[in-house]
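Per your request, structure below.
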């Protein structure tokens, strides 16, 4: 595996949430890879393996261009196969067995909002209206949250479950996806379809971004940001300069994740409150604007200031 190329430069520690919280090199990609190079057993590195948020920041920093997040997912699968975290694996597998629909969506543009955003119907209505400018966008019937969780955890997804999720999406020309890990997988599964990060797409709409001010902290969704970093960093730097808003970018130009949602919710290892305080450190803001509904829920627990989804900067859905 690619971990053999790690020479211990420590650059991956700079933006690593688990290292920042533990202050222990064992809880870092470097620590995991060096342990394996010295023949550590999977059971010895399992706590660190399952503390990783797969935010993707380390992939950008690695001078050896190791696919760190991909390797972490492979190691998680190996840990499950060796009998580690049986209860966690069973819980994720039980979610994958839920009944699903295979009804095809009759639309060229489909939004996969995820369960958290779907639980905010007023905001979701605005999202749908905003993304229906060029062609009517419909909501997917299946959010694929269980698939995203399995991808993150390294749990095998049955062909039947994958088919039931993908079949309704066949034929669509464009998909807007809220979850960065799901977006990455869909690019492999549906290579002929235009795949767009939901938050990034909304951040390109001037009728929303012109309402950002220097008193706002804008939270970029970390996984999608790091997935397309060369493209997205230029966009968000321009947004920051034009509107004066602060962002959750660190000194290495990586997005600090909140640790909200996904595997860390089912199996908490990273303190999301500590992550939120890290993001807020040094900022005095009037509002927090988020691209990801889960990030909004996490920040609302920490902060007295209003926390808004970016779509909520459009006061009424019928304005668009």
């Amino acid at each position: 595996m690619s971990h053999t190329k790690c020479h211990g430069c420590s650059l991956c520690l700079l933006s690593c949430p688990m290292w920042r919280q533990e202050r222990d090199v064992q809880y870092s990609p470097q620590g995991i890879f060096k342990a394996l190079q010295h023949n550590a057993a999977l059971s010895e590195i399992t706590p660190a393996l399952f503390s990783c948020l797969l935010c993707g920041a380390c992939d950008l920093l690695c001078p050896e261009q190791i696919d760190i997040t991909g390797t972490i997912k492979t190691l998680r699968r190996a840990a499950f196969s060796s009998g580690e975290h049986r209860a966690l694996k069973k819980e994720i597998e039980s979610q994958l067995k839920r009944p699903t629909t295979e009804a095809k969506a009759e639309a060229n543009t489909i939004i996969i909002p995820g369960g958290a955003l779907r639980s905010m119907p007023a905001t979701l209505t605005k999202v749908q209206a905003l993304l229906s400018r060029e062609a009517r966008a419909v909501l997917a019937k299946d959010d694929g949250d269980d698939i995203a969780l399995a991808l993150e955890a390294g749990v095998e997804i049955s062909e039947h479950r994958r088919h039931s999720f993908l079949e309704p999406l066949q034929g669509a020309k464009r998909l807007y996806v809220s979850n960065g890990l799901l977006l990455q997988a869909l690019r492999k599964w549906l290579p002929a379809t235009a795949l767009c990060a939901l938050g990034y797409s909304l951040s390109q709409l001037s009728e929303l971004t012109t309402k950002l001010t220097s008193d706002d902290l804008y939270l970029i969704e970390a996984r999608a940001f790091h997935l397309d970093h060369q493209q997205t960093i230029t966009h968000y730097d321009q947004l920051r300069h034009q509107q004066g808003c602060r962002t959750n970018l660190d000194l290495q130009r990586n997005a600090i994740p909140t640790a909200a949602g996904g595997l860390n919710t089912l199996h908490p290892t990273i303190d999301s409150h500590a992550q939120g305080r890290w993001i807020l450190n040094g900022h005095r803001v009037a509002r927090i604007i988020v691209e990801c509904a889960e990030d909004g829920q996490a920040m609302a627990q920490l902060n007295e200031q209003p926390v808004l989804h970016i779509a909520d900067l459009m006061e009424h859905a019928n304005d668009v």
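The chain has a mean pLDDT of 93.

Regards,
D.
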